[in-house]
């Protein structure tokens, strides 16, 4: 998928990539009194709200589970991981446009821009998810060895997100309506994915359509691990894996074919 020449280029510019990630993270909190502490306070507040409101106030229960925190964990597992996907997509669709001046003036491997997007998103996600993991451990809901299964699921999700994001990002340079359309489409996609509701409450005809929603399988895998403490059904992730690989291959070919034209268009 990625040639050795591309890998060498990325390695040669690793300082540029890591420096860009560091600068973006610092600039996010540069004018805030509490600085980077907000990266902890914001997710802590979200986890606390979901836990208190749904587990204690509304007494929301997850069908088939007697655990007080089951629905809160189910909700956090879906929303936090969907947030990673949405952030990669949102940043990818404008990454070439936002870096137009850099692309025009400096010679560097432009494939590093998607890598910067992914690393920034993973940094933000890592902070939030670490706090969520701490909550699971403190509340006695840590899934045990099944937690390791998150690694391949996360890798699959990132591969799927960046493949789709790069396609949208390249197309958005030439057709700005693409980004606008997808910003609306992803909202519908969120609600068609069992995140705030369990798939079991859907009518059987609609539930059958979830098979064709790759994010339903990916989010469902996280929820199985974190709520039920067991490994996901790996067969359900075959379709998302195939789509992720195909999209990454297509995205790289599209990028290589149109990278020269993008400079003129920007």
UniProtKB/TrEMBL annotation:
Membrane-spanning residues: 32-57, 69-90, 111-138, 144-174, 181-202, 237-255
Pfam families recorded: ABC2_membrane
Subcellular location(s) of the protein: Cell inner membrane; Cell membrane
Domain called ABC transmembrane type-2: residue spans: 34-258
Chief localization: membrane
InterPro entries in alphabetical order: ABC2_TM, ABC2_TM_bact-type
Species of origin: Massilia agrisoli
UniProt record similarity statement: Belongs to the ABC-2 integral membrane protein family.
Key word DNA-binding present: no
Protein name according to UniProt: Transport permease protein
Topological category with respect to the lipid bilayer: Multi-pass membrane protein
Keyword annotations: Cell membrane, Membrane, Polysaccharide transport, Sugar transport, Transmembrane, Transmembrane helix, Transport
